[in-house]
Specification:
The complex is a heterodimer of chains A (about 625) and B (about 500). In chain A, helix 5 runs antiparallel to helix 6 (about 145-165). Chain A folds into five domains: about 10-145, no CATH class; about 165-285, no CATH class; about 295-350 and about 360-535, no CATH class; about 540-580; about 590-620. Chain A starts with 6 loop residues before the first helix and ends with a helix. With about 625 residues, chain A is mainly alpha-helical. Chain A has helices at about 5-10, 15-30, 40-65, 90-115, 120-140, 145-165, 170-200, 205-220, 225-240, 250-255, 260-285, 290-310, 315-335, 340-365, 385-395, 405-420, 420-445, 460-485, 495-515, 525-535, 540-580, 580-590, 595-620, and strands spanning about 70-80, 80-90. Chain A has a two-stranded antiparallel sheet. The longest helix of chain A has about 40 residues, at about 540-580. With about 500 residues, chain B is mostly helical. Chain B is built from 18 helices and four strands. Chain B has helices at about 1-20, 25-50, 80-100, 105-125, 130-140, 140-150, 155-185, 200-220, 230-235, 240-260, 265-290, 295-315, 320-350, 370-385, 390-400, 405-430, 460-480, 480-505; strands at about 60-65, 70-80, 360, 435-440. Chain B has a two-stranded antiparallel sheet with strand order 1-2. In chain B, strands 3-4 form a two-stranded antiparallel ribbon. Chain B starts with a helix and ends with a helix. Classes of the chains: A mainly alpha (about 625), B mainly alpha (about 500). The interface between A and B is large, with 74 and 90 residues.
């Protein structure tokens, strides 16, 4: 069957391999085996293989457009009733996601050349990004749950290493740890689901799983409890990956990592997590409770993330919480069975968010500062950055007719009859986002020039080029979206809905422009306001709650186990040893290196054994 | 004849090292040992290529009557269960000889003992006769005791004695079970015949199996019989730790599968639910105890306790997939724990400490141990079960094979897998991340110069064995069919043995 397929399709397995090979190619520089001429060649090699991945992906798209969706798989491991395969699902949506991943990776790698210009471990960064890219391109193409899980965990590892890139800094150390552990909790829960599904459904192919899920629901193959646990396990993985409440903590801390990695993390990594959820949704739907939990998590993340974002004074964190908020919206869309719209929203969000983070990166690279209270007046000094920020933010906010505006319109049009509450939630989130970007824009680009923003030339061309190119793409996004999904078209919602979206965005912008921005961001003098401000600024005290309900109990349990081990187990052993003191002491004292006595012991033991056997034989 | 070579080479090697004329230098002795071990590895690879993976039973068998009066025959054979372990033994003993440097006292005896252990372990894995197995099982004990008690750390006498007493008890219980089997069945034929126990009443079977379980449980070790292991590891030198964790613990799990599961299928099926709970307790206990450790070696030792619990879980579940998972877990734990001990050994040699309260920022690219640190990240991730490395596929097979049989114990063990990430991340975060410093965290850092650390660079020849092990870990993780092909038929057959009697009931 595969012989008839064109070559680019047959070689689809190369696409993730490009990324991984980029990692291997960087190793000689990353490990310091090659020190001459600096680490730049590693970056160029990675750019080259990523370019190959982009080109290969577009060739595949051309073929798939003519041939229709294809499915390829290769055996990987087979034992008894277990059959694990490497499978690729070449549908247009998967390939669009692949192009998003590879293109963003390429753009970010160019950006990183400028951003990490003087970084001595540039090669290590590129090696990790190659690993990252390989895992992500595999996740979006994967046609079976096992492979998706496999690669998602690789993403966890590479996130850990990328966040921990500057591992000598104390904040980075905790950030990397939290990123890994939070995601790992999600991954282990997901693994429980994967293992259970593998045992129950047999096959790991998504299509087979859907069939099994339908049967399980109709014929009550599994108990309701098992179904609920399965559903909850399956959503835990994507929740961790997409930084949803209550597993959102890591994304905020991950902002300690290098900015180019933050760009990828906030745009495409979260997209990968959501795509896995999308693929799992028919199985999750077996459990009504899991769907409800998904909706609740999405809603809390959307509103909570939006609120917390408003109270942040760190430039990157203000937007990372906003990512949590948008992914919450995507979760709602997925839970309400609107996969097409969820994908569209992911696509629009991914590109615009990446652009926003690029402009943020450009500001940080120039000013070496990411504290909002110390920034100001950059608008005229960094025009390209300022413009990119505006375009990126406009692409996110439903006000001007760029990407997210149309997505929100479509979603709300779908929801207003079905679930008006969620429609309102989209509007509120939109208003909060608009308010957040407006207040950030005011404090960074407008206002007086501050000490840290006095000498701020525009970013160098390696950063400006990807930024401006991406701005153009974001501006063209509605047109691209119309091309991807021509029926019923992105404008297929009535005018009042569009006006409602625009109005919510406008309200946000207005609040954002009038709200008082204190340069020193002192806490409010009003007690009630101060409590609220602290609550949001400290992310609803989530780290503290985690410390209380998870870290302290686990640490306590660990200390108890150690105590038990030393006092009870070892104490018992030593006690028994002391009782038979003669033997033990005799052996202890004889440890002096006298070979003869050891050999004697050995021989005596063997003689006793053989003698004992002879006696036994007499008995038997 | 091929299998006898696996005994002859190390045992003759022991004599060669002991009797080498003139006073050979330690370096010369090391080279001789390495040459012998390379030969042994070659022969075990030859065995692997002569082995037919499609056949379920024992292969390349050799039978000679030895002491017929007591049923002790020289009967060797190999199957898909023992072949991977023989390969691990050959490989890891070679690694531990290679990483042995600067032996200051009695190098002759040190290397002779190393060879004696590897020969005895080969013998135990290859024996088809219960008494022969027992002889080899005991034979490995004395040399290891010597290796800990003569070349160990400060508190070595205590640790070595504890090891000796625990393992002697283990040996006695196993011998008792074997003799009891003979006594109760009235046959002195000690050859490995699975059906023997069926003649016994269930009560007798349970007693014998119980003795075997405790005996092998000490060796594996399972909680609460594990107490000797952390002490032995912390006092043993790095090569001995590699051998102990990588090879010798496998004698316990191998014995449990071969003589527990295979000889007493009915009693095993009866005890299986309790064994699964025992496994889960062992996993959680080992992992939690590891979190609270500050000595890197102790932490790795407790992680062994946890990870060997998976093997018991898989054995208890006793499905084709879970038993294959047990073999995978034995092999991957062998490779990964050897790698971890090796790397901890390098850190210890360069810094003089293994204390996590003291070490900071070892990844420092100029003054620290960046490459060792990178390998350490690979090793801990492999141990935590990250895909692409050996730990993941092993754990996946174990869990996948066990979840239908013992859902609760499997889920609890998976929590243990999550805890592995916690303690190993603590290890990496504390010792390798942050700013390079080597002194206790209190006091004035600048004053006492703790930040002016300049560690001696690690030579490539020091990290080479670690790189080889890491490559093995990744290879097994990416191409698991390499091992699956060898063992699948044997583990499926093993699961079928036990499926028969339980199916009848």
């Amino acid at each position: 069957m595969s012989a008839a397929l064109p070559l680019p399709l047959q070689l689809i397995w190369l696409v993730p391999v490009y990324g991984f090979s980029g990692m291997l190619l960087s190793l000689p520089w990353a490990t310091g085996w090659i020190k001459r001429n600096g680490p730049r060649p590693a970056a160029y090699l990675n750019l080259l293989v990523t370019l190959l991945a982009v080109l290969h992906g577009s060739l595949v798209i051309r073929e798939v457009v003519t041939l229709g969706p294809q499915h390829l798989d290769f055996p990987w491991f087979q034992a008894a009733d277990l059959n694990l395969r490497i499978g690729f699902d070449l549908s247009l949506t998967n390939l669009a996601a692949l192009e998003l991943v590879t293109t963003m990776s390429l753009v970010c790698q160019v950006f990183a050349l400028g951003y990490l210009d003087k970084e001595w471990s540039l090669a290590r960064f590129y090696a990790l990004v190659g690993f990252f890219e390989g895992a992500m391109s595999g996740v979006v193409l994967s046609s079976n749950l096992f492979m998706s899980y496999f690669l998602l965990e690789m993403l966890t590892l590479s996130t850990y290493l990328l966040v921990g890139f500057w591992y000598a800094q104390p904040l980075v150390v905790t950030a990397a740890r939290d990123a890994f552990l939070t995601k790992r909790v999600g991954d282990v829960l997901l693994l429980m689901g994967v293992v259970a599904l593998s045992a129950w459904a047999g096959s790991m192919e998504f299509t087979d799983l859907y069939a099994w899920a339908a049967r399980a629901k109709a014929e009550q193959l599994i108990s309701p409890l098992a179904g609920t646990l399965l559903g909850l396990g399956l959503i835990a993985g994507p929740m961790g990956k997409c930084a949803q409440f209550p597993m959102h903590l890591w994304l905020d801390e991950a902002m300690e990592g290098p900015n180019p990695a933050s760009i990828l993390r906030n745009s495409v990594v979260v997209t990968c997590g959501a795509i896995v959820l999308l693929k799992l949704m028919p199985v999750v739907a077996v459990s009504p409770l899991a769907t409800t939990v998904l909706l609740a998590v999405g809603s809390i993340s959307a509103i909570g993330g939006g609120l917390v974002a408003v109270a942040q004074v760190d430039l990157k964190r203000a937007f990372s919480y906003s990512t949590t908020s948008y992914l919450g919206l995507v979760f709602i869309a997925i839970a309400l069975q609107m996969p097409g719209l969820a994908l569209l929203l992911l696509f629009a969000h991914g590109l615009a968010r990446a652009l926003q983070f690029m402009s943020v990166g450009s500001i940080i690279a120039t000013t070496n500062c990411q504290d909002l209270t110390e920034l100001g007046g950059l608008g005229t000094r960094m025009p390209a950055t300022s413009l990119s920020f505006l375009v990126g933010s406009a692409g996110l906010v439903g006000l001007v007719p760029l990407g997210c505006f149309w997505c929100f319109g479509l979603v709300i049009d779908n929801l207003r009859q079905l679930a008006p509450g969620y429609a309102a939630l989209f509007l509120i989130t939109n208003a909060l986002t608009a308010m957040n970007v407006t207040r950030v824009y005011r404090s960074v680009f407008l206002g007086p020039v501050l000490p840290k923003t006095k000498r701020t030339p525009e970013a160098n061309w390696l950063m400006a080029l990807p930024m401006v190119s991406l701005s153009v793409i974001v501006l063209l996004l509605p047109w691209i979206m119309q091309r991807i999904d021509p029926v019923p078209g992105i404008a297929s919602f009535p005018l009042p809905v569009g006006l409602a979206v625009a109005a919510s965005g406008l309200v946000g912008v207005l609040i954002g422009s009038v709200v008082q921005l204190d340069q020193f961001w002192s806490r409010s003098t009003q007690p009630t306001l101060r409590v609220l401000q602290d609550l949001l600024a400290y992310d609803f005290y989530t780290p503290e709650i985690y410390r209380r309900i998870i870290v302290i109990p686990v640490a306590g349990l660990a200390r108890f186990t150690r105590w038990f081990d030393i006092t009870v187990v070892k104490g018992l052993v030593d006690g028994v040893g002391r009782l038979s003191l003669t033997t033990a002491e005799g052996l202890k004292l004889s440890v002096s290196g006298q070979l003869q006595s050891y050999v004697l012991t050995l021989i005596v033991a063997i003689v006793l054994l053989l003698g004992g056997l002879q006696v036994l034989r007499g008995v038997g | 004849m091929l299998l006898s070579l696996l005994l002859l080479i190390p045992f003759l090697g022991t004599l060669t090292v002991l009797l080498w004329p003139g006073g050979p230098s330690p370096a010369r002795l090391r080279l001789i040992t390495i040459a012998i071990l390379v030969l042994q590895l070659g022969v075990s690879l030859a065995v692997a290529s002569a082995f037919d993976p499609a056949q379920a039973g024992m292969q390349l068998q050799e039978h000679h009557a030895w002491v017929p009066g007591i049923g002790l025959d020289y009967a060797l054979g190999i199957d898909g269960l023992s072949l991977p372990l023989v390969l691990i033994n050959s490989g890891l003993t070679l690694v531990s000889a290679v990483i042995t440097r600067d032996i200051d006292k009695r190098p002759r005896i040190y290397f002779a003992m190393l060879l004696l252990i590897t020969g005895a372990v080969n013998g135990a894995f290859l024996s088809e006769n219960l008494l022969l197995f027992f002889l080899f099982y005991e034979l490995e004990l004395i040399p290891l005791w010597l290796l800990v008690s003569v070349w160990g750390g400060v508190n070595r006498a205590y640790a070595a004695t504890k090891f000796l007493i625990f393992t002697a008890v283990s040996g006695m219980l196993i011998l008792g079970a074997f003799l009891g089997l003979a006594l109760l069945t009235g046959s002195v034929d000690f050859s490995l015949t699975p059906v023997l126990s069926e003649r016994l009443a269930m009560g007798g079977q349970l007693w014998l199996l119980g003795a075997l379980l405790i005996g092998f449980g000490i060796k594996i070790p399972l909680v609460p019989l594990h107490n000797w292991l952390p002490d032995a590891h912390t006092q043993a030198s790095t090569p001995v730790s590699v051998l102990l964790a990588g090879v010798l613990l496998k004698l316990g799990t191998y014995g449990m599968l071969r003589f527990g599961l295979q000889l007493f299928p009915e009693a095993w099926a009866k005890l299986a639910p309790a064994l699964a709970i025992w496994a889960a307790i062992s996993v959680l206990y080992g992992s939690l105890a590891a979190i609270a450790q500050t000595d890197m070696k102790r932490m790795v030792a407790y992680s062994s306790v946890g990870h060997m619990g998976y093997v018991l879980l898989a054995a208890a579940a006793d499905t084709p997939v879970s038993l294959l998972g047990a073999v995978f877990q034995m092999v991957s734990h062998g490779l990964i724990s050897a790698l971890l001990f090796l790397l901890v050994g390098i850190v210890y040699r360069k810094t003089g400490t293994r204390d996590l309260e003291v070490l900071r920022g070892l990844l420092n690219p100029e003054k620290g141990l960046p490459f060792t640190g990178s390998l350490m990240i690979v090793a801990v991730m492999a141990s935590a079960g990250l895909p692409g490395m050996a730990g993941f596929i092993s754990e996946f097979l174990v869990f996948r094979g066990s979840i239908n049989v013992f859902p609760l114990a499997t889920l609890l063990s998976m929590v243990g897998s999550g805890l592995t990430a916690v303690y190993f991340l603590l290890l990496v975060n504390r010792a390798f991340f942050g700013r390079l410093a080597i002194t206790p965290p209190s006091g004035d850092a600048v004053e006492d110069g703790r930040l002016d650390v300049q560690l001696a660079p690690v030579a490539p020849r020091e990290t080479f064995p670690a790189m080889a092990l890491a490559a093995g870990v990744v290879l097994l993780g990416l191409v698991p069919s390499s091992l699956g092909r060898i063992s699948e038929v044997a583990t499926t057959a093993l699961a079928a043995i036990t499926a028969l009697p339980t199916g009848v009931h």
